[in-house]
Design a protein that fits this description.
The chain has 73 residues and is mainly alpha-helical. Helices cover 67% and strands 11% of the residues.
Length: 73
């Protein structure tokens, strides 16, 4: 269970960082959002990468909060 939680925390953190990067990118130079993210993956654009990061981060955070043990007093 600890490995699964560590995996989810990693997805949440890197997903958030990727989404934040795209948000700053959209603010600084929005005309590049329709460009491909890298030459290694011509099918994914910068804006699509931002959406994927947001969904992955939100899903990982939701699952983390769902499986967190509750502490009763």
């Amino acid at each position: 269970m600890k490995i699964f939680q560590a995996f989810l925390k990693t997805i949440w953190l890197y997903g958030f960082a990727g989404g934040a990067y795209i948000c700053v990118n959209a603010w600084v130079h929005p005309w590049t959002l329709s460009w491909q993210l890298t030459h290694l993956t011509p099918w994914i654009r910068e804006d699509t990468f931002g959406i994927i990061c947001f969904v992955a981060s939100a899903a990982a955070f939701f699952i983390l909060q769902t499986i967190k043990p509750s502490h009763k007093l």
